[in-house]
Amino acid sequence: MNDKTILHHVTELVEEEHRLRADTQAPDQNAARLRHIGEQLDQCWDLLRQRRAKREFGENPEDAKVRDPKTVEGYIG
Q: Mind giving me the DSSP string for 19-55?
């Protein structure tokens, strides 16, 4: 998976998130999916950061791996 593919997936997730948030008819039904989309977005951004860091330090960006949601969601900034 390359950066362009990851960014395309981010775009798709954001578009779906916007559609779900605009759906005022079923906010409770959309809540779980919205949480999952949020986790997936965090994972995508984390993967992009890993890839960019590896590239910056002369490592292979293809060695970056998707981390589990608990790891990504547990970051303290």
A: HHHH-TT-HHHHHHHHHHHHHHHHHHHHHHHHHHHHH
